[in-house]
Amino acid sequence: MFATVLPSCSTSPVEVDTPVGDAADRAPTLADVAAGAGVAVSTVSRALSHPARVNVTTRHRIERVAEQLGYVRPGSAPSNGGTGLAVAVLLPDTNNPFFVDLLRGVQRELKARGRHLLLIDTENSAALDELALSRVRGICDGAVVLTPRLSEARLDALEHASMPLVTVNRPRRSRPSVVIDAASGFGQAVEHLVSMGHRRLVYVSGPRTNWSTERRWRTVARSAERLGVEVSRTGPHPPVRAAGTGAAEAVINSGATGVLVFNDMIAISMLQRFAERSIRIPDDLSVVGCDDVFAAACCHPALTTISSPAEQAGRVAVSLLLGGDVDESRSVLLPTHLVVRGSTGPAPA
């Protein structure tokens, strides 16, 4: 631990006690500098990476603490070749096409800022999320977390102990995050189905550990109640193609004529299962997906889906992490919209 004495004005010296115990045996970290300067870890990161974006008084205090502690920025060492710092990106599944556009946005913004991307597939495991964030400490200048499983308390603890974090599709209290407002898109989808005469709907839910699953369901349920139609739900289902067969069978037995699906991967697989069962889409059932991945426009019939600004989300996440025009403490909400294609039509008579 470090004991610190914060100055009463900018001209006073900053006193930082010598580390004791285990801390004396390791290199100082961003968190150590932040504790010594009395600021957030993200502020230290920006002060050392983009000095012009931090108040001059705060920056000088951070620089003095960093010098006294002997902190060396990752990437300033010769082993990094002086080519710039890296940012870790944690995602749950490299097989999910939704992340392709999101990663493209992250990569383009990092390139513009002279950073490199360290991609980590945590295989839908909360334990691997935590392990990865711990191991990239001191290697990366921060992390963009696309995995929704870690609790708020664990995220706070990891951020304090290691480096700045920005979450995507996982809002946090007084912490930077980017949220794609898919829930409002599901509200649009309910209105779309009801406008074509559907009176019994079913929501195919995603995994319980995904924050957006319940948020989407609440929007669907409220919209259905407001419009005076019935709605039920099936699941939870993992957000992968293999879940589509079981989800399709559950929908067939639900009596619904309009189906709202957690993501396009499940929805496209469901379309295939419906075809195997000789269920006509959209004559017998109307299906709406979410994310508007590339394959959504290519399957048969083409999938009506909720279009998400994934690439923009990636760019904004990096901007929040590294500093820019966006307030570091706010949650940025990005709008979505419904794209109507061939998988939805009038309710069967």
From TrEMBL:
All copies of domain HTH lacI-type, residue ranges: 28-82
Transcription regulation among keywords: yes
Entry keyword Iron-sulfur: no
Any one GO molecular-function label of the UniProt entry: DNA-binding transcription factor activity
Keywords, comma-separated and alphabetical: DNA-binding, Transcription, Transcription regulation
CDD domains on file: HTH_LacI, PBP1_LacI_sugar_binding-like
InterPro entries: HTH_LacI, LacI/GalR-like_sensor, Lambda_DNA-bd_dom_sf, Peripla_BP_I
Name of the protein described by the UniProt record: Transcriptional regulator, LacI family
